[in-house]
Write a structure and sequence with these properties.
With 329 residues, this protein is of the alpha+beta class. The protein has a domain at 87-293 and 308-324: Double-stranded beta-helix (4-Layer Sandwich). Helices cover 26% and strands 28% of the residues. The protein contains ten helices and 21 strands. The strands form five sheets. Strands 1-2-3-4-18-8-21-6-5 form a nine-stranded mixed beta sheet. A four-stranded antiparallel beta sheet has the order 7-19-10-17. A hairpin with a 3-residue loop joins strand 1 (15-18) and strand 2. Helix 5 crosses helix 10. The protein is globular and about 60 Å long.
């Protein structure tokens, strides 16, 4: 096992373990994530393989943050649901939502229902909240005809690639999040918080240190969070926030043109003291993500296991009837 892990450091998209059953290799020549575990035998049971190779899987997740399992004959929502149940992980309810997402089975959701023409920018799931998930498990039920990749970025590398001056401002000040909840420009408060009354919304806000203000049917929210945290397992500093994803400059010009002012933005982010994140600073953060990025084409039945803290994800635009589902733990 140790020898295999040492080989991961130098491999360039070549097998590090190759036998009649399993081939293990890096997906990217440039970066060491995700690790691809590919079955060469039809019908090989993924649950059993993971149980038999738990040390390898745990060490790979710790070091690389993501494993892509391929050709394990998991081809439907039912197959995937059964697989995630077999892992015995603690499921997490998807609340404080930011995009349309629907449950297709117990703890199995559509990855997003945003229009296929849109790019979804890099983020770690719910990094803006007090209780982000530890792990995400994606499954490709139907790959896109073209595009539709789920790019990954290593948040430790992202942090290293952000200029020191910007990094120190975020380290000292954190992130201020502002959200305007209006059904005309996104999700309504009932869907976001998975509740039916305003009193329940207010209770969740107080519990999570979110300031709220009702403006008729519009709900304004604001809260602060860290920009840089330490990984619970490795103790490494990582970039873990939604400062980039929620920023004004992440919106398309077409969308911005329909707004009367920045106050109408569904989301916006600032340094923790309320000062603006400039376009120059935003572009440098974007460059840090791009320099830490890996992507691969989905194949039917692919299972992608992700450390949500170490690895952020995005989505490319696509053609076809792409269906990717996800479980949150």
């Amino acid at each position: 096992m140790k020898n295999n892990l040492e080989k991961l450091k130098i491999a360039k998209a070549v097998p590090i373990q190759d036998n009649s059953l399993i081939e293990i290799k890096r997906v990217s020549e440039r970066l060491d994530f995700p690790i691809l575990v590919q079955s060469n035998m039809s019908g090989l049971n993924l649950e059993q393989w993971i149980n038999n190779n738990k040390i390898f899987c745990d060490e790979s997740m710790k070091k690389h943050g993501a494993i892509l399992f391929r050709n394990f004959n998991i081809n439907s929502v039912e197959d995937f649901t059964q697989f995630v149940k077999s892992l015995g992980l603690q499921a997490q309810k998807y609340t404080n939502r930011t995009s349309p997402r629907y449950s297709v089975a117990e703890n199995v959701y559509t990855s997003t229902t945003q229009p296929k023409t849109e790019i979804i920018h890099f983020h770690s799931e719910n990094s803006y909240s007090q209780t982000p998930p530890d792990k995400l498990i994606f499954c490709c039920i139907v790959p896109a005809i073209s595009g539709g990749e789920t790019p990954l970025a290593n948040n430790k590398l992202v942090l290293n690639n952000i200029p020191e001056s910007i990094k120190n401002k975020f380290r000292n000040l954190g992130v201020l999040y502002k959200r305007r909840v209006s059904e005309q420009l996104g999700l309504g408060w009932k869907e976001i918080f998975q509740v039916s009354t305003r009193e329940e919304v207010e209770e969740q806000c107080r519990k999570n240190d979110i300031e709220f203000n009702w403006l008729g049917d519009i709900l304004d929210l604001s809260w602060k969070g860290p920009a840089i945290v330490k990984h619970a397992v490795t103790n490494d500093e990582i970039w873990f926030n939604h400062a980039f994803f929620f920023n004004k400059f992440s919106y398309s010009e077409d969308f911005l043109s329909i707004l009367d002012s920045d106050e109408d933005l569904p989301f916006s982010t600032f340094y923790g003291d309320g000062t603006s994140i400039s376009k120059v600073e935003y572009d440098l953060i974007k460059k840090a993500y791009d320099n830490s990025r890996v992507e691969f084409p989905w194949k039917k039945g692919d299972i992608l296991m992700v450390d949500n803290y170490l690895i952020s994800h995005a989505r490319n635009s696509y053609d076809g009837e792409r269906q990717i589902v996800v479980s949150i733990f």
